Amino acid sequence: MHDEYTIKELGEGHGTKFEFECYDLGHLYNRAWIFDHGWIKPPFFIQMVFGILGGVGPGLVTLCTCIPSLKSFLGKATSGRCLLPGGIRYN
User: Fold this and answer.
1) So what's the pLDDT on residue 86?
2) H or E stretch including 72?
3) What is the pLDDT along the chain (91 residues), one digit of tens a residue?
4) 20, 48 in Cβ contact below 8 A?
5) Rounded Cα gap, residues 5 and 75, in angstroms
6) Phi and psi angles of residue 29, each rounded to the nearest 5 degrees, phi first
7) Where are the beta strands (DSSP E) in 35-76?
C-alpha cells in the first residue's frame, strides 16, 4: 500500500514521471504488474542495466530476452534504453 501511495499521490499527484531502472527480468515483471494495476500511466521510461553485481549479465542472450519481454509486457507505453558497464549503450 505504501508503494501505491508513493507512486500515485507523491508522483502523479505532483506531475512527476518516474524513470525505472531494471537490473533483471524480475524487475520488468514488477513494472508490468504495477502498470496493469493502474499505478503508473504511460508514457514512462525504463532503463535496463546489465552487468552489475546482483543483476543479469551483459551478454547478447540477456539483451535478446529482456527487450522482447519489455515490449510484450508494456508495449508502446514505454521507451527505454539498455546500459552495460563501460559506457556501452543500446537504444
Assistant:
1) 57
2) helix 60-74
3) 578 888 888 778 888 877 888 888 888 888 888 888 888 888 778 888 888 877 888 777 877 787 787 777 777 666 666 666 655 555 5
4) no
5) 25
6) -60, -40
7) 44-49
Q: 22: which residues sit within 8 A by CB, 6+ positions away?
A: 28, 31, 46, 47, 48, 49, 66
C-alpha 2/C-alpha 23 separation (Å) is 22
Locate 23 and state its grid cell. Answer: 537490473
Cell numbers describing residue 4:
501505491
pLDDT at 84: 67
Please name the helix (run of DSSP H) or strand (run of DSSP E) that holds residue 78, with its range, or none: strand 78-84
| Distance in angstroms (rounded) separating the CA atoms of residues 89 and 51 | 12
Any idea which residue has 505532483 for its cell? 14
Distance from chain centroid for Cα 40: 12
Among candidate residues 43, 50, 27, 49, the one with its CA nearest the CA of residue 75: 43
